[in-house]
């Protein structure tokens, strides 16, 4: 673990060990950004990074962009960079990956540290602007290193190894969760394709006969009544004809005025009807008044 800080050996620490070991020390600063560097430490290395990020920030400022403000949470476990309003963690720099930290003696507001990225294994230099606390923040990170190193010696290195294993397991869990989410999406697509393949062609496009408010098929005099097919799909059975015509209590067949014609009446009834018809044609005399069915002859 490299510890390189611009501080005097006899300078006392500013915070209690419990504050950094069990909690964290918060600071507010402006974040100029981070850039890749070739070396894990060195004053000239961070000076080049500061000049580069200041130039980039000057261009963005001329375009109307402001320097973003961040919150730093420093503890023996690392330095977290958060959004001051939402508290969302933007960067989590573990302490054992920080190899160099220093404040700029020419510009008292600037401080930096170099951290090795956990994914790309590249060395990144983080640059901050704090009007009053640049040196204090640098010393707080130095105190966190000192306490972490003492804890490392007391535990025989087991604590650092445990944190590394936990970090590796956490990353593995994130990868498995992402893989699980992707597999769920693929499974959903396959289920949808299987459902489409099981639907017979044309079944979903079959037209449905419109019904009225009582869920009955409306009657149309233009279309003949066709018996509907049975539920099992077989052809409907023709209506069965009665084998024996029922008779009334006088032994006569029932009279149906809608189906029977003139030739269907018995001879005696037919003759009576003929006589009545002739009588109506000739006219009836009632108390001396003649009525005629002929509209041209009928007068009162």
UniProtKB/TrEMBL annotation:
Coiled coil: 166-193
GO biological process: phagocytosis
Annotated ranges, domain PID: 27-155
CDD domains documented for this protein: PTB_CED-6
Domain of life from the UniProt record: Eukaryota
Gene3D superfamilies, alphabetized: Pleckstrin-homology domain (PH domain)/Phosphotyrosine-binding domain (PTB)
Alphabetically ordered keywords of this record: Coiled coil, Cytoplasm, Phagocytosis
UniProt GO cellular component terms: cytoplasm
Keyword Coiled coil: yes
Annotated compartments: Cytoplasm
Family stated for the protein in its record: Belongs to the ced-6 family.
PANTHER family: PHOSPHOTYROSINE INTERACTION DOMAIN-CONTAINING FAMILY MEMBER, PTB DOMAIN-CONTAINING ENGULFMENT ADAPTER PROTEIN 1-RELATED
Name this polypeptide is given: PTB domain-containing engulfment adapter protein 1
Recorded name of the encoding gene: LOC113053701
């Amino acid at each position: 673990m490299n510890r390189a800080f611009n501080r005097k050996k006899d300078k006392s620490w500013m915070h209690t060990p419990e504050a950094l070991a069990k909690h964290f020390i918060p600071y507010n600063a402006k974040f100029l950004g981070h850039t890749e560097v070739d070396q894990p430490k060195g004053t000239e290395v961070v000076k080049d990074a500061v000049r580069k990020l200041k130039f980039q920030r000057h261009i963005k400022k001329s375009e109307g962009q402001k320097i973003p403000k961040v919150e730093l949470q420093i503890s023996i476990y690392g330095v977290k960079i958060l959004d001051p309003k939402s508290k969302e963690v933007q960067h989590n720099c573990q302490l054992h990956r920080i190899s160099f930290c220093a404040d700029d003696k020419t510009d008292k507001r600037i401080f930096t540290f170099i951290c090795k990225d956990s994914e790309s294994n590249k060395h990144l230099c983080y640059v901050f602007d704090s009007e009053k606390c640049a040196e204090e923040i640098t010393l707080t990170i130095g105190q966190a290193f000192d306490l972490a190193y003492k804890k490392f010696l007391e535990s025989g290195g087991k604590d650092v190894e445990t944190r590394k294993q936990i970090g590796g397991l956490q990353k593995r869990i994130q990868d498995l969760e992402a893989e699980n989410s992707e597999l769920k999406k693929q499974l959903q697509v396959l289920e949808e394709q299987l459902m489409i393949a099981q639907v017979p062609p044309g079944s979903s496009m079959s037209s449905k006969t419109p019904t009225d408010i009582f869920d009955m098929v409306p009657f149309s005099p233009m279309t003949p009544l066709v018996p509907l097919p049975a539920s099992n799909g077989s052809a409907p059975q023709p209506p069965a004809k009665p084998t024996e015509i029922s008779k009334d209590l006088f032994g006569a067949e029932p009279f149906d005025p809608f189906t029977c014609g003139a030739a269907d009446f018995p001879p005696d009834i037919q003759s009576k009807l003929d006589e009545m018809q002739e009588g109506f044609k000739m006219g009836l005399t009632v108390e001396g008044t003649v009525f005629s069915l002929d509209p041209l002859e009928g007068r009162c």
